[in-house]
Amino acid sequence: MSLAAYCVICCRRIGTSTSPPKSGTHWRDISSLFLTYEVLALKKAVTLDTQVVEREKMKSYIYVHTVSLDKGENHDPFSTVDIEDHECAVWLLLRKSKSDDKTTRLEAVREMSETHHWHDYQYRIIAQACDPKTLIGLARSEESDLRFFLLPPPLPSLKEDSSTEEELRQLLASLPQTELDECIQYFTSLALSESSQSLAAQKGGLWCFGGNGLPYAESFGEVPSATVEMFCLEAIVKHSEISTHCDKIEANGGLQLLQRLYRLHKDCPKVQRNIMRVIGNMALNEHLHSSIVRSGWVSIMAEAMKSPHIMESSHAARILANLDRETVQEKYQDGVYVLHPQYRTSQPIKADVLFIHGLMGAAFKTWRQQDSEQAVIEKPMEDEDRYTTCWPKTWLAKDCPALRIISVEYDTSLSDWRARCPMERKSIAFRSNELLRKLRAAGVGDRPVVWISHSMGGLLVKKMLLEASTKPEMSTVINNTRGIIFYSVPHHGSRLAEYSVNIRYLLFPSLEVKELSKDSPALKTLQDDFLEFAKDKNFQVLNFVETLPTYIGSMIKLHVVPVESADLGIGDLIPVDVNHLNICKPKKKDAFLYQRTLQFIREALAKDLEN
């Protein structure tokens, strides 16, 4: 019966009633009539096609048909999936990504990453059904949509009456105390000591020196938890350089605990970078890859890769490169960062350019664009946490896309009082062996190489090349070296070690500074040996030198590397009107300092880049 006919019948029934209605009854009947009309009209308006609803529900889930587990039967899990025509592309790409042929798998990942027209549920299908290789490949594809990555699984709850800081301390205490050098022992002891005192202070149970320890407790209570956590993290970074200790970190829930810390300290880049250093070291161990993927770190790093902050994206790139065994054969150990290319690329890489910083430098901040006329040594990290300009990554990579650009990082100090580890009195010879081993693991020597160094970094480059020349397994490093750029390198020493000016820096000059003194026998031997070696190998060399003094602390200014010390004895020597800190920091892209550097790289690698 139609809605209109039903209303007419109701009206007639009201109009032909035999007994007169009581007062008000008539209007109540009329109201009931129209209320009934509205309800029926609404019901008709909201009638749904249940088949459409069911189809949409089907899109939100993945239904896997049960197959026999009999190994004798060959089943294709994708051959029996019931899907609509417009869904074929998603499932065909998934099938390709699981192919036995590597080329087919890589092509499937590339096609997925270039797809930007899918609905949310289609990205979710890929996220739920892809294997770890595909997930890592998508994370290392520049155009990938972040909807390919599921949120990390829920983290386990903290133990009752516990805190993140306390659990981090317990993780550190659970790690083996074997195979440790003096520096790891130092960091571990310091972290456990500081965190124990801090925790005791927070719980109000700290007494010291036979009296009330309240003032002492208050002093610890004022220290942010991130500060205490940094002690523990720095120790765990050192432990994670040992493979067997990585196994313990994973077995004791370290991946989840570090993820909790990573989320808690979103506004503390230094904490996050140390956490990423640990994950990057763990990723060097292929048997831990599945655990790293399951814990959700790939999704977190996929997002970090897209960060505008170069340090964050470069740490993430190192982790994902160490996880990506489909397209990366090299392994990037702690302190070795690829600035370009950070994603998978079809661009053939024909040569390597390596950047080695000097005293108080770092892998990123040393190579930033010049930012002030009077940069001072005493604030090496204060304002650099979010400083993102790095000319090798932003300028050189665009001008020479066929290069792999690597920057390395190692700890240095001006004074033993400011040394990160008092036991770490490492000589240039020790550091050069350590860096050479790490760079060889990263595949340095497999392609033509240009070395670029600043200050003490140039001495390390010289020592590394001399060491490589004595080891048959390192011969490719020598044979493929095409050229070297030295930015104010003190080949003949520096007066820096002679000054004992600011108690915070130079009262007790570090071993690195002492080795830079003009009367250092080791420095003279290094210069004589390398000059003869470089002439024999006919290396192309370019030397830059500062002409302006540098402010050291707030007390004096010093010409750190005079012109005569920067003269290697071969290659051009170019004076530049800047100080020691800015000699490797061009003011802008068209500045002479950058353009001359670019010209040298292109000339040294001309034949290699043409082929």
UniProtKB/TrEMBL annotation:
The keyword Transmembrane helix applies. It is found in: Endoplasmic reticulum; Mitochondrion membrane. Keywords: Endoplasmic reticulum, Lipid biosynthesis, Lipid metabolism, Membrane, Mitochondrion, Phospholipid biosynthesis, Phospholipid metabolism, Transmembrane, Transmembrane helix. GO terms for biological process: phospholipid biosynthetic process. Facilitates the transport of serine from the cytosol to the mitochondria by interacting with and stabilizing Sideroflexin-1 (SFXN1), a mitochondrial serine transporter, playing a fundamental role in the one-carbon cycle responsible for the synthesis of nucleotides needed for mitochondrial DNA replication. Plays an important role in the phosphatidylglycerol (PG) remodeling that is essential for both mitochondrial function and intracellular cholesterol trafficking. Signal peptide: none annotated. Belongs to the SERAC1 family. The keyword Cytoplasm does not apply. One of its GO terms (cellular component) is endoplasmic reticulum. This is Protein SERAC1. InterPro entries: AB_hydrolase_fold (IPR029058), ARM-like (IPR011989), ARM-type_fold (IPR016024), SERAC1 (IPR052374). SUPFAM superfamilies: alpha/beta-Hydrolases (SSF53474), ARM repeat (SSF48371). It is a single-pass membrane protein.
